[in-house]
Design a protein that fits this description.
It is a single chain. The chain is an alpha/beta fold. Helix content is 47%, strand content 14%. The chain has one domain: 2-enoyl-CoA Hydratase, Chain A, domain 1 (Alpha-Beta Complex), CATH 3.90.226.10. The chain has ten helices and nine strands. The strands form two sheets. Strands 1-2-3-4-6-9 form a six-stranded mixed sheet, sandwiched between helices. The protein has a three-stranded mixed sheet with strand order 5-7-8. The longest helix is centred in the first third of the chain and has 20 residues. The radius of gyration is 19 Å and the shape is globular. It starts with a strand and ends in a 15-residue tail after the last helix. 42% of the residues are buried.
C-alpha cells in the first residue's frame, strides 16, 4: 500500500514525513488523511506517555517540503474539494494543538497549504534555495485556510501585504519576513533541525506543554470556528467561475510537439 505519510519516534523526537515525493508532496485527500492520522497518533502518544516525545519534526520526502493543495483530481467536484480544504484546516489545528514543540524542516518548495504547514509549527528552518509563499490570489483562489496561521506568525499587517500580493520568495527573504525561524545552507539543514530538537528535549515536558497551551490560548489558535469558517470560505471561492477557469488553464494538458512541427535535425 502506498503510504502517504509516516510517523516514527526515536530518542524522544517524533518525525512525520509526507511521502508523496514524486508529486512534491502535494496535498490530495489521501495525503491529508494520512497526515492527520499521524498527528493524532503523535498526540495520543504525548497524552498517554508524557515525556516520551519531547519534540516533533514535520518533513517532506524528496526535493520539496510540500507544494500545496493538489486540486487537479477534484477540479470539478465541489464536494471533494470542500472535504480537502476542511481536512487541511483541521489538520493544521491538530498540529498546532500538539503539546510538544514542532519543527518544520522546509526544503525545496513550501507553497500555499504547504507554507501553511510550515508556519503553523512552532519553528521552521529552511535554506536559501527553497521557495515559499502564498500564490493563491494569482490563481483566483482565496488563502483563507492559511490566513489565520500567517497572521499569528508575522502579524496582521505583514500577513495582509503578503497574501494580497501573492507570489513566492526564497529562503533568505522568508526568514527576513518572519515566515521561518532560520535560514541555513542546504547542507546544514538536517544538522540544524537535529540540534534544535535536541535542545528542546532539555526542557521540562510539563513546562513546555503548559507554555504551548497558554500561547495557543493567547493568540486564539484553539478556535475551531475560525478554522471551520476559513475552510468554507476557501471552498466557496474555489468552486466559483473565476477560480475554476484559472485552475483549468493551470491543469490543461500541455500540447505535444510532433515530428512535423519540430523535425529532428
Amino acid at each position: 500500500m502506498n503510504e502517504r505519510a509516516s510517523l516514527t519516534i526515536a530518542d524522544g523526537c517524533a518525525t512525520i514525513v509526507l511521502r508523496r515525493g514524486e508529486s512534491r508532496n502535494a496535498l490530495d485527500c489521501d495525503t491529508i488523511h494520512a497526515l492527520r492520522a499521524c498527528i493524532d497518533a503523535a498526540t495520543t502518544q504525548c497524552n498517554h506517555t508524557p515525556g516520551n516525545i519531547r519534540s516533533l519534526v514535520l518533513a517532506g520526502e524528496g526535493k520539496s517540503f510540500c507544494a500545496g493543495m493538489d486540486l487537479k483530481g477534484v477540479l470539478h467536484d465541489a464536494v471533494r474539494m470542500g472535504d480537502m480544504l476542511r481536512g487541511l484546516s483541521l489538520a493544521l489545528l491538530a498540529l498546532r494543538r500538539l503539546p510538544v514543540p514542532t519543527i518544520a524542516r522546509v526544503q525545496g518548495a513550501a507553497i500555499g497549504g504547504g507554507c501553511g504547514l510550515a508556519v503553523v509549527c512552532d519553528f521552521a528552518i529552511t535554506h536559501p534555495e527553497a521557495k515559499l509563499g502564498y500564490p493563491e490570489v494569482d490563481l483566483g483562489v482565496c488563502p483563507a485556510v492559511v490566513a489565520p496561521w500567517l497572521v499569528r506568525r508575522i502579524g496582521a499587517g505583514p500577513a495582509r501585504a503578503m497574501l494580497l500580493a501573492g507570489g513566492t520568495m526564497g529562503g533568505e527573504e522568508a526568514a527576513a519576513r518572519g515566515l521561518v525561524t532560520r535560514c541555513v545552507p542546504a547542507a546544514d539543514l538536517d544538522a540544524e533541525v537535529a540540534a534544535l530538537a535536541k535542545r528542546l528535549a532539555t526542557g521540562g515536558a510539563e513546562a513546555l506543554a503548559c507554555t504551548k497551551r497558554m500561547l495557543n490560548e493567547l493568540d486564539g489558535s484553539l478556535d475551531e470556528k475560525i478554522a471551520a469558517d476559513a475552510a468554507e470560505l476557501s471552498a466557496r471561492v474555489i468552486a466559483g467561475p473565476e477560480a475554476q477557469a484559472s485552475l483549468a488553464r493551470l491543469y490543461a494538458p500541455k500540447p505535444k510537439e510532433s515530428a512535423a512541427t519540430n523535425p529532428a535535425r
